[in-house]
Write the structure tokens for this entry.
Amino acid sequence: MKTYQCINQSFDKTKPTSCDLYKGCKSPFMLLDGDITSEILIIGEAPGEQEDSTGKPFVGDSGKLLRHSLKLTNVTSFAMTNAIRCRPPGNRDPKTTELKSCRSFIDDDIEKMPNLKLLVLVGNYAMQTILGHKGVLEHSGTYTSITIDNRKFGVLCLMHPSYVLQNQTELNKFINHTGRIRNALTGDIVDPSDEGTYTIIDTPLGWFNFLDKVKQQPLFSYDLETNALDPYRDDSEITCISFSTYPREACAIVPNEWMMNSFKLLMEDPKYRKIGHNTKFDSLWLRVKYDITVQGIEWDTEIGQYLLDENESHGLKSLAWKHTKLGGYEDHYVQGQPHMHAGSTNLLRYSCIDSDITRRLYDIQKPEIEKDAGLIKTMKTLLLPVSDVILEMERRGIRIDPIKLMDCEKKVDAYLNKVDLDITAERSVKRFLKNEGVQFNPRSAPQLRKLLFDAEYEDLSPISKTKKTRVPSTERAVLEFYADSNNFCRLLGDRSLYGSMKSKMIKELNEYNIGGRIHTHYWLFQTSTGRSTSDDPNLQNVTKGKKDVVGIRDVFIADDGFDLLECDYNQHELRCMAELAEDDALYKACQTGDVHAATAKTLLNKSTISEDERRDVGKCFNFGLIYGLTIYGIMKRLKCTESVAKSYLDRFFGEYFKTKLYMDATTWFVKNNGYVKSRLGRYRRFPIYDELDDKCVREGINMPVQSLAGDILLFALIGISEMLKREKAKSFLCLEIHDSVLLNLHKDEHYLIPLIKEIMLNYFRKYIPFKYELAVDMKLGPTWGSMRDI
């Protein structure tokens, strides 16, 4: 009996289960293809239509992309096979029993390859077959090892090329990950010849020798290792600090008392120029743990990679694969868990490699970015300065009221109980219980699909399908579409809202509450448009308006002696669209104070409109405008015929014809050049393998608008921070939420309000040309949910 060992788990091989897939195939039991003397075996998921017709794996569109990527990365010798040997009908997902049935074929293929060293697992089901789990998007490009019949093999996981064809901006990442095959083939994936000279400092003499070296070359990279992800808890600590003044040289030290004073002077002196990778993270830890305010940040290699290619991973470990022969060093030294080895030689060496690679990346990135005035401007005038501002926002956090949070949780539970009772009382649910003999589970997509679209129950028409399986979608947008006309959908939508509020927002507020404050994390590199994001918890997605039935925004409160001040850009993205399109008509509509009403009146040809018409027609078109409005989208949203939707669209672009010209020109540019550029100078690249799809075109239209809007807000943060320092104010920034800024405003400093408003309206103009006027709404109050207009 064969035994397999994988990820610290052992299991016995069982006999293949019965499988009938072969009965419907032209080429059943597809054989191994390629060079069996190779060191590489590529394992895919299952044959598709073209593979079944030809009898060979990876010959369809996905296979062509994979082979193209292998050729680009100089991988020329390999064999190919699939986890499933017969084509599943309609290209459906393989079943677990089918994977088990075919496992013996994989073992036979491995036995046929005497020189085999590396298994390349392409897609989820190849991963499941060999490693026992899915999640290929998370693990794509990662390396591990496995033992089969006492033979040890390296294993490299890759996202499936079919995913890349559906998400074309993933192409560069896919090619990057494919390029790791040659490095992973060595078995011991870190090439010692590419390591530098790494020194551990453990004496005062060694430390002061290092300081003397820095004074001779006042430019160095640095890196921290920590035992946690955030620095706010008492038991979190910095376990190691490393530095690199030259490529392939680095030193590391465990923080201690005899070096701390001189270390603080070094990090706070701006004449010593610092390079880091995600400098905000390291600077935040130093600020919280040692009261060190880092000055003189020269470069951030994470920002640099983001500016050079927003589609590729900008993590340091990914860049090590691309630019060095040290890819996978984190597993080599600390098995992916550096915090478990605090103070160890391996951890110190690992940190040295971090600093060394960061220093090397600086020399690679700097000349490339300096070639483009827009990119260096974005780095130096926006992203580096705003990182410092956001760091302080994170450090200060925002205060919450735990009693109000408990009340919200109780209210959510009550709403959930009530809506669950109402759902079980629905006629279709009662009939389902009688017919199926099981309770209805509103979280079960198959049950939900049956109840919504089966003729015996609600008999609704599907309005969209899932991307992969192409079955009718039951996502929240579908429920909201039918909510006004179908009570069952309204109840399901309410349940989804309350359930998400409980499992996400309330849960995370409890989890991340540290001493009555929430310290969210902001990211400047998670979106291709440059819009910031927030997590742990996501405070940019706190329920508001009519949907905030439990008063979750009242949980966020001002500090003692302060009020909360919210400064919100009015119709921000629409004004940015008007600016880019030079559309006076759209700008004037924004100036009316209610652009949605103005648009609805134009389209409906009415002098007065209802609130529903304002929302459903005006808002639909205005926001749809930015995201690439289509006839089908109008029909779906407004529940109208194609002819009516076309008449609306014609009337809309008749009113805002310069916006139509701008969108057409941008579409042409994107299709012919494969990229679009923001006004400040950052790029949105579309590294397509085949023809540019409609999704990329819509993103190309959207990116300059969102990027401009986001950059204006980030510049406002910089301007407000500078003003508060000049004024020696007690007030401070605490949140930024899409198009708005939230401050703790001291009760004695209300005179700052007009200064803040002026900064939001005009500070950005020093860096970005802008013709039109912006508008900012100001609100003040003791809680985020009880603000009054000022």
Summary: The chain has four domains: 3-184, 192-371, 400-518, 519-573+669-790.
